[in-house]
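Good day; I would like, with your permission, to put a structural problem before you. What I wish to show you is a protein chain and, alongside it, a tokenised description of its three-dimensional fold. Thank you for your consideration; the sequence and its tokens are set out here:
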Amino acid sequence: MELSLFKEFKNIIVLDTETSGLSFRDDEIIELAMLRVEKQASDVRIMDEYDEFIRLSDGRILPEKISQLTGITPFMLETQGVQKSEAAAALEKMFSVEKPLVVAYNAQFDMCFLYYFLAKYGDASVLKNIRMLDAMTVYRDRRPFPHKLCNAIEQYEVDAVNSHRAIDDTKAAFKLLMAMAEEKDDLMNYINLFGYNPKYGVSGSKISSVTYKPQGYEPGIPVYEL
């Protein structure tokens, strides 16, 4: 299929993180998954895939509720996880490709965690001038509440699962992006535009390159026209 995003971007990087909690300042990334997608002839193809557990810092304990939600256990992190510096290097390499666009579902959450992660364990300057698309902002403009990833998967009937594992949710976000583009290819209008619930405000620190606009519970005028 044709996708207008590829007129501007050579690489689309779809990503997701699983974390030890909700605070990007105090909690840690425990799984990082990324897909690098290119347009090849008439197809959109996954060209590169990354998925790794990341070990917790010394003395940190993974909350039981996170293990119950994700299926990720302290033993898995200890025996299969990579060092933070290794994950940071992989992230920097992925973000350094030609003309990248970063896509995530609820990108505000992931990008806040990634900035603090790179600032401590890698080079956060790789995020400078990175352009982003939040698939949840698009979905809020298309369908009524609720707006979780599992709801979007169901509504668009994509062959994917919202398992709260980063690699599964990354693949789901990619398929959802394709389905939303097929429905209405206005995705270029959402670049660096994040919607937020006006009742709660923007979650976390605002990203300087992003424009934030309130979105209600029901579809209406597209947020990019407000």
Summary: The mean pLDDT is 96. The chain is about 35% helix and 20% strand.
